[in-house]
Amino acid sequence: MRRLVCLDGLRGVLATYVMLSHTLPFAPLPAWLHWLFQHGGAGVDVFFILSGLVIVQSLDSFGYRPLPFLIARVARIYPVFLAVFALAVAVQPLATRFEALAWIGPESPARHIWSGGWPSGWGVGIATHLTMTHGLFPNGVLPDVWVGFLGAAWSLSTEWQFYLLALLIGHRLGQRRMAWVFLAMSAAAVIWQTAMPETWRFSRAFLPNKAHYFALGVISALAVRKGRQGFADYSAVFAATLLLCLVQGGLDKLLPPLTWTLCLAAQLYSPSPHTRGPGWLARVSVCVGTALATVAAVLRSRPLVWLGAVSYCIYLVNEPLQKLLGVTLAALVGGDAALFTALWIPGAVILPVLASWWLHERIEVPAQHYGRGLALTAGRTASITACGPRAGPSPHIG
User: Fold this and answer.
1) Whether 398 contacts 61, CB under 8 Å
2) Dmax over Cα atoms in the chain, in whole Å?
């Protein structure tokens, strides 16, 4: 698999944006700035599209063998998650102290970012988080369990649902048909959410509610492999994804597929030496090429690629660390909004980034290396078992 460096940079952009969307609602800032960073959910949706591409490539590299693939995924997801989840559980009992932050009104998005107090069904909440099943329950069965402790972890349940289903059906169906299965699943979810009473509706952590984003990622793998030959397949899935986004939530929901398509085009773009057609077409081609080259240069920049490397850690750790910082500052500043903002904004960004760097170096990278070794060993063992003791050397697993 060739490294898609633009998409590494995209990870950095997305993680930083989500972190800022958790930061700015706590500060009395201009309305336009709040509006600009109120689309954190769209950033997570782009992560889902990216995951669709990455997971399909990973499944291909492991030959759709369950054990090595699952070992690699566990090593990738769980070590950092367990460390941050322990922190989230520790800060969960802390009161949010919104009464000391008078500028945060009752309708402020900030009140939906932090949760305070120990939940009544804490045992079930912890168990479902540890098993990544907290996104599987409708509201009437386990209300709000999907965001019970570590809010950002809701998407990990969605990811694991996708991993297992892609593992089950991907090899048999192939990427094109698998993408359309996920689109059909998303369409069924729209009908379910419309027809069923509130108690039987699922949260956004339930895979069918996000399946169209994964579908776009799956078909992107085909576009990466085939280049321009995969354009027709990508265009069809892209159009279906846009339609489902409109049905689910209007124009704001169009941001993830449009953003993704721009970044994917920047990754795959290669200038053509000769453009056939009238002069205006050549000029348009040059303008588009210049724009894509600029986007690619930004996404390949060292700061964004580094942020992309630590993006998973930033995504998980920002919320509990920010709550700890915010509660502390609320007790210290005595209701001074200007002082709180001056301390809060740099601290709420720098602390998670530093913590993410530590988690990446000390936990994430060693765990990935160890998991990769275990996955390779499991893959070779599976190959030898399948081929028999006299078979030749096992195939390389990327």
Assistant:
1) yes
2) 76
SS3 of the chain: helix, strand, coil, percent, to 5 = 75, 0, 25
Q: Are 59 and 172 in contact (CB under 8 A)?
A: no
Q: How many residues belong to the chain?
A: 398
| Chain segment 125-167, per-residue pLDDT in tens | 999 999 999 999 998 999 889 988 899 999 999 999 999 999 9
The residue type found at 398 is G
User: Mind listing the pLDDT tens digit for each residue in 79-105?
Assistant: 999 999 999 999 999 999 899 999 999
Q: How far is Cα 395 from Cα 398, in angstroms, rounded to an integer?
A: 10
Residue 138 three-state SS? strand
Distance between CA atoms of 333 and 103, rounded to whole angstroms?
13
Whole-number Å distance between alpha carbons of 108 and 350: 24
Measured distance between the N- and C-terminal CA atoms of the chain, rounded to whole angstroms:
7
Query: How far, in Å, CA of 197 to CA of 191, rounded?
Result: 12
Nearest to 78, CA basis, from 321, 364, 375: 364
| 286 contacts 309 by C-beta, under 8 angstroms | no
